[in-house]
C-alpha cells in the first residue's frame, strides 16, 4: 500500500488555500490587499481594485509628512480605509505573517476590525480546530492572513520552488545609498541629506519593501533566489530590522494597526 505525505511547503500551501476558501464561503465581497512585496505575491499565487496614497493627498484626505524623517507609510491607513468603505469590502486578504513582528504575532487568521477599521488585539475570536468565525455587524470587516503561519524562509523556498517573479529590489545590486540608523537607505528625490551623509555605491538588497524613505537595505551578494535562501538561513537579524517606521516607538506597528493599518 503506497503512502501519501506532503512536504512542509505543501502543507502550508494547503492551509492557505483552505483559509482563502473559507473567506469566499463566509463573506460577500472579499478583496486581496496587494502591495507588490514577496508576501502579497505569494498570496496572489495561491489563488484588483487599487487605492492610491497620492490620490488621498491630492484630495486633501491626508497631509504629507515633512521633515528629514518624513514618510508616507502612515498615510496608507486612510487610503486603505477609504478604499474598503468605497467598495464595501467585508474581508481583505493580505500577506502579513506572525513571524515578521511582535504585533503581527497577535493576529488571528481572521482578524476582526470594528466599523472604524480599527484593530483591538484583546477582542479577537478563538480559532480552535481551524474553525473561523466571520460573523460581523454592519460596517465591520475582517483582515485575513492566509500565510500567517509561514516564515520568511518558507516564503523564499516557495518562491524558488514555484519560480515566482518578484521585484528586483529583493536581489543584490549596486545601488546609490547612504548609511543611516544602522542600514543603507536608497538615494532618491525624497531623501533629505544631513551633515555627514555620504552617498556611495554598494551591493545592497532589501529583505522587506516599504516606503522608500524608511526601508533600509543590507550589504549582500545574493543576486539569485538560491543565494537569497542561503542568506536567510544564516541571517541573525530580523526581517524588518531595517524598517525605520518600526523604530519610531516600541509599539509602532501595533499603534498603526489599532488605527486601521494593514
- At CATH's second level, what is the architecture of the largest domain? 3-Layer(aba) Sandwich
Radius of gyration, Cα only, in angstroms? 19 Å
Ends distance: 47 Å
Mean pLDDT: 80
Q: Could you give the order of strands across the largest sheet?
A: 1-2-4-3
In CATH, the topology of the largest domain is named Rossmann fold
- Counted beta strands: 8
CATH class of the largest domain: Alpha Beta
Shape: globular
Determine the fraction of residues in helical runs and give it as a percent range: 25-40%
Poorly predicted runs: none
Number of helices: 7
Succession of helices and strands: HEHHHEEEHEEEEHH
How would you describe this protein?
It is a single chain. With 262 residues, this protein is of the alpha/beta class. The chain folds into 2 domains: 8-153 and 250-258, 3-Layer(aba) Sandwich (Rossmann fold); 167-244, no CATH class. The protein has 7 helices and 8 strands; from the N terminus they run αβαααβββαββββαα. It has helices at 8-26, 38-45, 53-58, 76-87, 152-162, 225-234, 252-258; strands at 30-32, 91-93, 110-113, 141-144, 173-180, 183-186, 200-205, 218-219. The chain has a 4-stranded mixed sheet with strand order 1-2-4-3. The protein has a 4-stranded antiparallel sheet with strand order 6-5-7-8, with no helix packed on it. The longest helix has 19 residues, at 8-26. The protein is globular, with a radius of gyration of 19 Å. The N and C termini lie far apart (47 Å). The mean pLDDT is 80.
